[in-house]
């Protein structure tokens, strides 16, 4: 897939497709490369651009509220997720977190209870170019923990589900020595239950942070925090085996 960009407009298309807009029609070559300039039949220019992580957040099909890039950055930064890691994920949704981790080179197994959501996530993994490294499974991870605990351990466990504390209770068996846990929740009550479960599971380095980000408004009058948008997204709990 390739992005065609004109000003603040962005269109996700496959090489070989046609793009129809009010600015004209663009024939997209099969061998289009990032950085190529393509003209519509009306002479308007579009720039071809390779997909990057933020583009995935903006253009993958959504089945709910995906994890924000700033939260994904904290997950990666606090856990050191890297190429070659084995990741167990639950609450796939759109698959944004799984796609980011897959593009890092991690091998991701992610569980989504809703079969329709899981199918959308599989399509999104193909668009993101990580269908070979991200295994989207339809099912409830809480019903699979015993089987998974008896297999090869994971380097990272990431959860974005209401029943995260139930999975965290098995984190000691799911994670390799030194492996990390990262749990996202929009509610502090769930984070509190997650911390209690992590303590009971014997995990260490337990911490919970609230994710807040303020955009600055810069104009001729001066610079100040923006009064628009939502700064708070949720709570992230981290722990280590």
Descriptive tags:
alpha/beta, Rossmann fold, 4-stranded antiparallel sheet, 8 helices, 15 strands, 35% strand
Offer a concise description of the structure:
This protein has helices spanning 53-59, 69-79, 96-104, 115-128, 145-149, 164-168, 171-174, 188-200, and strands at residues 2-6, 9-13, 18-21, 24-27, 37-39, 45-49, 86-90, 107-112, 134-138, 154-159, 175-185, 204-212, 216-219, 222-225, 232-240. By secondary structure, it is of the alpha/beta class. It has a seven-stranded mixed beta sheet, sandwiched between helices.
CATH superfamily of the largest domain: Vaccinia Virus protein VP39
**How many separate helices?**
8
Biggest sheet architecture: 7 strands, mixed
Report the order of strands and helices: EEEEEEHHEHEHEHEHHEHEEEE
Classify the secondary structure makeup into a structural class: alpha/beta
Q: Provide the CATH topology of the largest domain.
A: Rossmann fold
Helix coverage percent of residues? 25-40%
Strand order of the largest sheet: 9-8-7-10-11-15-12
Number of discrete domains: 2
Count of beta strands: 15
What is the architecture of the largest domain at the second tier of CATH?
A: 3-Layer(aba) Sandwich
Strand residue percentage: 35-45%
The whole-angstrom Rg is: 20 Å
Low-confidence stretches: none
Mean pLDDT reading: 93
Shape: globular
Question: How far apart are the termini?
Answer: 39 Å
Q: For the record, what CATH class of the largest domain applies?
A: Alpha Beta
Explain this structure to me?
It is a single chain. The chain is of the alpha/beta class. It has 2 domains: 2-50, Roll (Vcp-like ATPase, Chain A, domain 2); 55-240, Vaccinia Virus protein VP39 (Rossmann fold, 3-Layer(aba) Sandwich), CATH 3.40.50.150. It is built from 8 helices and 15 strands. Strand 13 and strand 14 (222-225) form a beta hairpin. The longest helix has 14 residues, at 115-128. The radius of gyration is 20 Å and the shape is globular. The chain starts with a strand and ends with a strand.
């Amino acid at each position: 897939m390739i992005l065609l960009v004109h000003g603040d407009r962005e269109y996700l298309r496959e090489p070989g497709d046609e793009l129809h807009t009010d600015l004209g029609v663009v024939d997209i070559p099969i061998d289009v490369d990032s950085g190529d300039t393509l003209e519509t039949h009306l002479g308007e220019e579009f720039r071809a651009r390779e997909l990057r992580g933020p583009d995935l957040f903006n253009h993958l099909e959504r089945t709910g509220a995906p994890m924000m890039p700033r939260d994904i950055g904290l997950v990666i930064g606090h856990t050191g997720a890297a190429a070659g890691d084995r990741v167990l994920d639950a609450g796939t949704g759109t698959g944004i977190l799984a796609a980011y981790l897959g593009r890092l080179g991690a091998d991701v197994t992610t569980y989504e209870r809703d079969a329709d959501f899981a199918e959308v996530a599989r399509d999104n993994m193909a668009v993101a170019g990580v269908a070979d490294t991200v295994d989207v499974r339809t099912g409830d991870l809480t019903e699979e923990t015993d089987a998974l605990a008896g297999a090869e351990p994971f380097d990272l466990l990431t959860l974005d589900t209401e029943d995260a504390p139930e999975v965290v209770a098995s984190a000691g068996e799911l994670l390799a020595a030194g492996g990390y846990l990262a749990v996202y929740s929009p509610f502090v009550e769930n984070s509190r239950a997650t911390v209690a479960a992590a303590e009971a599971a014997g995990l260490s380095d337990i911490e919970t942070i609230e994710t807040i980000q303020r955009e600055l408004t810069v104009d001729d009058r001066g610079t100040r925090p923006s009064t628009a948008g939502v700064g708070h997204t949720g709570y992230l709990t981290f722990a280590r085996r």
